[in-house]
Amino acid sequence: MNPETQAKPKSKNNLFWPDVSTLDKAQWASRQAFWAASFCAVVTALLSGLAISGNAFAKGLHLSAWSLLDASTFGVIALGLWKQSRVAATAGLAFYVFEQAYAMMTMQRFGNPIMVVVFTFAFIAGVRGTYARARLLKEPDPTGSMSQAA
Predict the structure, then answer these.
(1) Residue 7 φ then ψ, to 5°
(2) Is the pTM of this model over 0.85?
(3) Is 125 exposed, middle or buried (0-12, 13-18, 19+ CB in 10 A)?
(4) Contact between 18 and 130 (Cβ < 8 Å)
(5) Do residues 123 and 96 lie in contact, with contact meaning Cβ atoms separated by under 8 Å?
(6) What is the CA radius of gyration of the chain?
(7) Fewer CB within 10 Å, N or C, the chain?
(8) Nearest Cα to 15, choosing from 129, 90, 118, 116?
(9) Quick one: pLDDT at residue 150?
(10) What is the tens place of the pLDDT at every residue in 4-54?
(11) Contact status, residue 132 vs residue 109, Cβ threshold 8 Å
């Protein structure tokens, strides 16, 4: 077979520490944080709604109507991440880590450590992806002209 006609094997994306060397890979990395922030927003909003309606399980998680503020904050962060905002990526990581530390101090428990680690790495990937994208957009392309923002 001719090497030119063979399909190149598609490289797998590393979920915990993605490659951010190209614009597509940087965007893929930042999308991880978008999905993590979206998940946090939706689940917090749903559980807050249950807590408001008097559900014992949600109230046991120390959720209340004030938790809707957390949900909306994660929603705004998700929108910023969709637009590849470095500010949103950094705020998402900081807010998530703060929320986890606050929950650990007030409830004296850590929650699901696997989920915390996975989401923390997703937010770190978002920071890496958005900063790499900004750097790559500033670099001249091989033809000598500046890259255009997508």
Answers:
(1) -75, 140
(2) no
(3) buried
(4) no
(5) yes
(6) 19
(7) N
(8) 118
(9) 47
(10) 555 555 556 666 788 888 898 999 999 999 999 999 999 999 999 999 998
(11) no
**Distance between CA atoms of residues 21 and 81, nearest Å:** 18
Q: What are 76-104's pLDDT values in tens digits?
A: 999 999 999 999 999 999 999 999 988 88
Distance CA 114, CA 118 (A): 6
SS3 140: strand
Instruction: Decide: 45 and 76 in contact? Cβ < 8 Å.
Output: no
Other C-beta atoms lying within 10 Å of the C-beta of residue 133: 24
CA distance 19 to 1: 31
**Nearest C-alpha neighbor of 88 from the set 141, 38, 48, 14:** 38
Instruction: For residue 142, count other CB atoms closer than 10 A to its CB.
Output: 6
pLDDT at 61: 80
pLDDT digits (tens, 9 = 90+) for 105-144: 887 776 788 999 999 999 999 999 999 999 999 987 665 5
Contact 105, 57 (CB under 8 A): no
Contact criterion met (CB below 8 Å) for 62 and 107? yes
